[in-house]
Design a protein that fits this description.
Layout lengths: L8 E3 L2 E3 L9 H18 L4 E6 L3 E7 L2 E6 L3 E5 L4 E4 L2 H24 L3
Bound molecules: zinc ion.
Amino acid sequence: MKELSWKPRVRGDVYCSPACGRGCTRAEYQHADKMADKLVIQLGVGWRARVWENLGWHYEAKAGEWSVYPSGDRMFLASNGQFGAAADTPAEAVAAARAAVIEAAKKLMDSARALP
Ligand SMILES: [Zn+2]
């Protein structure tokens, strides 16, 4: 069986790939693209936008292994796959995730120091 393409195709207002098949629109893509740029601007230097399609258009900001993306209407998640945190703003989510990593690192260091 041939794999379906993830390259979006234009049909009127539709901007959707055969592999997705949802019938995503150009307006949805443009919204995700705009929101991705806004997110990157909010986060500052070092972040880049990523927009992708999978039963709708989605976006996130990436920096190395870290991603920041919307969760619902008013929350943002920052995650590296191991640690994550949610907050009202992208910057707060990043700060909370950073604090979670630092806290875990401290616990690991304490554990290492406790070794006889
Ligand atoms: Zn689609």
